[in-house]
Amino acid sequence: MRAGRRVGHNRGVARTSTGLADSGEAFTGALLLATPLIEEPTFRRTVVLMLEHDEGGSLGVILNDLSAVPAADVLPDWRAVLHPQVALGGPVQADAGVAVAQLHDAALAAPPDGVRTLAGPWAVIDLDQDPDGLAPALADAQLFVGYAGWGVGQLDAELAQGSWWVVESRAGDLELARRTPRDYCWSKVLRRQPNDLRLASTFPPDPALN
């Protein structure tokens, strides 16, 4: 199982959401938070880590959709490196895998071969490499099956429609969904925002119940 698409850096300067009425602009390393406008089950209340956003399109992985599949059943040689459970990264290429890592600070300055750095502490692992050689550089690593993808201009259009909020990711965000359901994870990220996005954290699952 190998990554289905090359991951790179975005170009230009982007910004996070300033509040409920401002989606912000997507960029590599950011988190996308689904707004209540998204009711489709695949992306409802998802938290997506952006791995790529440039003139060729956008790619990310859903952080808060952990499966019950053991990573050792998929990549047995990587059992000592990856989180024990596989996450469902999105609906595109559901038979392809991408391993996302949080790097130790020392590895950020000099990443080893087999690690493609993104932004902040984030990187993508080349699963053809020797896992024992990469392990010292990795603070955390998660195998995702499938990913979320957008064609040229598609994500920007969804942001303009108010379907997503863009916020900063934090080191440790691979832990978001490992012990919590999807809605709790989504609310947790909203609660840590420094603006009125915090208000959305209490938005009821069914607006009719509000």
Give start-end ranges of low-pLDDT stretches: 1-12
Main sheet: strands, sense, barrel = 10 strands, mixed
Specify the structural class: alpha+beta
Q: What is the terminal separation in angstroms?
A: 44 Å
- Indicate the overall shape: globular
Please state the average pLDDT score. Answer: 90
Helix count equals 5
Descriptive labels:
210 residues
Descriptive notes:
With 210 residues, this protein is α+β, with helices and mostly antiparallel strands. The protein has helices at 71-74, 105-109, 131-134, 154-160, 182-191; strands at 30-34, 47-54, 57-62, 66-70, 85-88, 92-103, 115-117, 122-125, 138-150, 164-168. It contains five helices and ten strands. The longest helix is centred in the last third of the chain and has 10 residues, at 182-191.
Task: Give a brief description.
This protein is an alpha+beta fold and 210 residues long.
Question: How does the SSE layout of this entry go?
Answer:
Blueprint: E1 30-34, E2 47-54, E3 57-62, E4 66-70, H1 71-74, E5 85-88, E6 92-103, H2 105-109, E7 115-117, E8 122-125, H3 131-134, E9 138-150, H4 154-160, E10 164-168, H5 182-191
Parallel strand pairs: 5-9
Antiparallel strand pairs: 1-2, 1-10, 2-3, 3-9, 4-5, 6-8, 6-9, 7-8
